[in-house]
C-alpha cells in the first residue's frame, strides 16, 4: 500500500504538486509493520498519511515552504507525528503550504504551486493546500493540516474533502512551527467524517510540552457518530448568508438546512453581529503574534543565512530580507507596528477587545443552540494566478472561518454540493470541546 501510494504521488506529481518532500524511510517502515503483522483492530496500522510541512519531523526536512528553512531538519518529532507513528501510520511525505501558513491559496509557497484536483486551473486553497489536494486526489486517505484563520477548512472546502479545526487546546501544538500561537491548531483532512473522527482520536489530548493543550478528557469521537440529529438545535447566522457570498453557495447551504430539518433537527436564523470585524481583528492579532514568533529566524539559530555580511546587524537584515517572502514580511511589519508603543492601544488592544466581543456573540448563540451551520467560504476555488495587487482582497476569503479561530471554537468543513464543477463547503461550528456533535451532524449529512 505504501509503495502504491508513493508511486501514485510520483506519477501524478506533475499535475497536483502536493508534496515538498517524500519520506525515503516510508517503505522500510511499512516493511517493518508487515513483518510484525498488521493489527486488524488498529485502523492506523500501515496507513499512509501526509503531513503539512510546518509540522516538524526528525527524518525529513521541515521547510514551512520558506527559503528560510529550505534545508532545515528538526531534531525532534512533533507530538502529533509521534502519536500517529506510534499508532502505526506511515508518513509518506510533507505537503506544500503558503509560506509559514500565511495565505489562502498555497501560491505563497517559496517552492511550488499546488493545483486543485477538481480543476487544475484553480487553487486548492490554503494554507494547507497540499494536505487537502493530496486527499482530494486520492493519493492518501488522510493528512494533517494546521488552521490559524481557516487554513484547514478553506482548502477542505475548495477541494471537496472533510477538514476539522479542533477546539483550541484539543491537540498539542508541540512541533507545529508557530504562526499565531493563540490561534494555531493542527487538525485532520480526510475523505469522510468518520475517518476524520478516527484521526482526531489519534492526535488529541494533553501534552506536557504544550502548556496550552487541554487536560479535558478526550472522548472516542466515533462512539456516537451515527446517533443522528433528531432534536439537535442548529443555528444559521444570517451574516453567513449575507453580502459577498456566492448565490449558489447560499442555495446549497439552505438546502443543507432543509436536509437537517427533514432529519429531525431544528434550524433557526440567528445573528453574529460582530463577525464582520473578525478579519480586521485577526490580521492585527495574528500578525502581531507572527512578528514575535518569527523573530527566531535570524540567520544564527535556524536554517538559512545570507552570505557576505559585514556585521551582526547586517546578518539579520540580509538574512531576513532575502529569506522571507513578501507576504511574510508584510505580516511581520504589520505586527511589529501594531505592537509598537505608539500603536498598541489603537490597534492591538482594540483588536483584542473585538476578539472578546466575537466570542460573546458565539456564546449567546450557544446558550440555546447546539451547533452553528453556514458556508465555509464565500466563493468556490479561484483561478491560479488571479491574485489582485491589493493583498487585503485575499484576506476576505477567511471572513467565515476567522471568527471561529478568534473564539477558539471547533469548526469543520464538509462537502455540500458543487457550483460549476467545483466543490462547495459547509461549515459546522460547535461549542468548545464538543467536536463530537460536529461529527455527529456531519456524519448524518454526508
Ligand atoms: N488565510 C489566513 C491567513 O493568511 C489563514 C491562514 C491559516 O489559517 N494558517 O492568515
TrEMBL record:
Keyword Ligase among record annotations: yes
Active-site residues, record numbering mapped to chain: 52 (charge relay system), 127 (charge relay system), 151 (acyl-ester intermediate)
PROSITE patterns: AMIDASES
Residue ranges annotated for the Amidase domain, each copy included: 1-438
Pfam families the UniProt entry points to: Amidase
Enzyme class: ligase
BP-aspect Gene Ontology terms: translation
Domain of life: Bacteria
Catalytic reaction equation(s): L-glutamyl-tRNA(Gln) + L-glutamine + ATP + H2O = L-glutaminyl-tRNA(Gln) + L-glutamate + ADP + phosphate + H(+)
Alphabetical keyword list: ATP-binding, Ligase, Nucleotide-binding, Protein biosynthesis, Transferase
Coiled coil: none
A GO CC term attached to the entry: glutamyl-tRNA(Gln) amidotransferase complex
Annotated signal sequence range: none
Keyword Metal-binding: no
GO molecular function: ATP binding; glutaminyl-tRNA synthase (glutamine-hydrolyzing) activity; transferase activity
Subunit structure: Heterotrimer of A, B and C subunits.
Function of the molecule: Allows the formation of correctly charged Gln-tRNA(Gln) through the transamidation of misacylated Glu-tRNA(Gln) in organisms which lack glutaminyl-tRNA synthetase. The reaction takes place in the presence of glutamine and ATP through an activated gamma-phospho-Glu-tRNA(Gln).
PANTHER family: GLUTAMYL-TRNA(GLN) AMIDOTRANSFERASE SUBUNIT A (PTHR11895:SF151), TRANSAMIDASE (PTHR11895)
Family as reported in the entry's similarity comment: Belongs to the amidase family. GatA subfamily.
Protein name in the entry: Glutamyl-tRNA(Gln) amidotransferase subunit A
Native source species: Fructilactobacillus lindneri DSM 20690 = JCM 11027
Gene that encodes it: gatA
Amino acid at each position: 500500500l505504501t509503495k502504491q501510494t508513493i508511486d501514485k504521488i510520483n506519477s501524478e506529481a506533475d499535475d497536483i504538486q502536493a508534496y515538498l518532500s517524500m519520506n525515503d524511510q516510508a517503505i522500510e517502515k511499512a516493511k517493518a509493520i508487515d513483518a510484525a503483522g498488521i493489527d486488524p483492530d488498529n485502523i492506523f496500522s500501515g496507513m499512509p498519511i501526509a503531513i503539512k510541512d510546518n509540522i516538524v519531523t526528525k527524518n525529513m526536512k521541515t521547510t514551512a515552504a520558506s527559503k528560510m528553512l529550505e534545508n532545515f531538519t528538526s531534531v525532534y518529532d512533533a507530538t502529533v507525528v509521534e502519536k500517529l507513528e506510534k499508532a502505526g501510520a506511515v508518513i509518506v511525505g510533507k505537503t506544500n503550504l503558503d509560506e509559514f501558513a500565511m495565505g489562502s491559496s498555497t501560491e505563497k509557497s517559496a517552492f511550488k504551486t499546488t493545483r486543485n484536483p477538481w480543476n487544475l486551473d484553480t487553487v486548492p486553497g490554503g494554507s494547507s493546500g497540499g494536505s487537502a489536494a493530496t486527499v482530494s486526489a486520492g493519493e492518501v486517505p488522510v493528512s494533517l493540516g494546521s488552521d490559524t484563520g481557516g487554513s484547514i477548512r478553506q482548502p477542505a472546502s475548495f477541494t471537496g474533502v472533510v477538514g476539522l479545526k479542533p477546539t483550541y487546546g484539543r491537540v498539542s501544538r508541540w512541533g507545529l512551527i508557530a504562526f499565531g500561537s493563540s490561534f494555531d491548531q493542527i487538525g485532520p483532512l480526510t475523505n469522510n467524517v468518520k475517518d476524520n473522527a478516527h484521526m482526531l482520536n489519534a492526535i488529541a489530548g494533553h501534552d506536557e510540552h504544550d502548556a496550552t493543550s487541554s487536560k479535558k478528557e478526550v472522548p472516542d469521537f466515533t462512539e456516537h457518530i451515527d446517533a443522528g440529529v433528531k432534536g439537535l438545535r442548529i443555528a444559521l447566522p444570517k451574516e453567513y448568508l449575507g453580502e459577498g457570498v456566492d448565490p449558489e453557495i447560499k442555495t446549497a447551504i439552505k438546502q443543507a438546512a432543509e436536509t437537517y430539518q427533514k432529519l429531525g433537527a431544528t434550524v433557526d436564523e440567528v445573528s453574529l453581529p460582530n463577525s464582520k470585524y473578525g478579519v480586521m481583528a485577526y490580521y492585527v492579532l495574528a500578525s502581531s503574534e507572527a512578528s514575535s514568533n518569527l523573530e527566531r529566524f535570524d540567520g544564527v539559530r535556524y536554517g538559512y543565512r545570507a552570505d557576505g555580511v559585514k556585521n551582526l546587524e547586517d546578518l539579520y537584515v540580509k538574512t531576513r530580507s532575502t529569506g522571507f517572502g513578501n507576504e511574510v514580511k508584510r505580516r511581520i511589519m504589520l505586527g511589529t507596528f501594531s505592537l509598537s508603543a505608539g500603536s498598541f492601544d489603537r490597534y492591538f488592544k482594540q483588536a483584542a477587545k473585538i476578539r472578546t466581543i466575537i466570542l460573546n456573540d458565539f456564546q449567546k448563540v450557544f446558550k440555546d443552540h447546539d451547533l452553528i451551520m453556514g458556508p465555509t467560504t464565500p466563493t468556490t476555488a479561484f483561478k491560479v494566478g488571479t491574485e489582485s495587487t491589493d493583498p487585503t482582497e485575499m484576506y476576505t476569503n477567511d471572513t467565515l472561518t476567522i471568527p471561529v479561530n478568534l473564539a477558539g471554537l471547533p469548526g469543520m468543513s464538509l462537502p455540500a454540493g458543487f457550483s460549476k464543477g467545483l466543490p462547495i463547503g459547509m461549515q459546522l461550528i460547535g461549542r468548545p470541546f464538543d467536536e463530537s456533535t460536529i461529527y455527529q451532524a456531519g456524519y448524518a449529512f454526508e
